[in-house]
Amino acid sequence: MLSRLQCPQIADAAALLARFRITDSDLALVKKFRREDNADLENYIEEFYKWLTPQPFFSHFFPDERRVGVTKAAQLEYMREFFAADIDDAYVESRREIGSVHARVDLPLDIYIAGVSVNFENCVEILASRRQAHATIAADAAGDFQADVLRHDDHR
């Protein structure tokens, strides 16, 4: 019979970053994403709940509105900490506490992974819409410039 593999507990933030190959450049990108993201984090969480609320397991983990409100407030703080990308020992400990809550409520791993996937998808959609917005702004600016040049040529 195989025994369950036990990974050694990560002692500090530096070890965690090394294990997951997270670099200073990666953290800088996360910080940049937050600075450039004009979307309100509360709206981002509401988008997540649009996916979560109709799930068949929702009422098991969220039996009343009070629990939903407490969890949304905790998620808002989580998002603020995440996008600050200041990974230190206190950050690692706060993530351990979150993991402990998920374990205490017996959240199945597939549900957790699905939630992570939805959040990742939301981030990708934000980035894609931002890229499209930048392309539109650039095209509009180029069009305005061309129109100005043509008007200037007409007045010669």
Look at the structure and name the CATH superfamily.
Globins
- Beta strand %: under 5%
CATH class category name: Mainly Alpha
What's the main sheet like?
none
Give the overall pLDDT as a whole number.
80
Radius of gyration: 22 Å
Discrete helix count: 7
Q: What does this entry look like structurally?
A:
With 156 residues, this protein is mainly alpha-helical. It has a single domain (13-150), classed as Globins (Globin-like), CATH 1.10.490. The protein contains seven helices and no strands. It has helices at 13-19, 24-36, 41-52, 58-61, 65-84, 89-104, 109-154. The radius of gyration is 22 Å and the shape is globular. The mean pLDDT is 80.
Key terms:
156 residues; mainly alpha; Globin-like; 76% helix; globular
Give a quick rundown of the structure:
The protein has 156 residues and is mainly alpha-helical. The chain has helices spanning 13-19, 24-36, 41-52, 58-61, 65-84, 89-104, 109-154.
Topology:
Layout: H1 13-19, H2 24-36, H3 41-52, H4 58-61, H5 65-84, H6 89-104, H7 109-154
Helix pairs in contact: 3-7
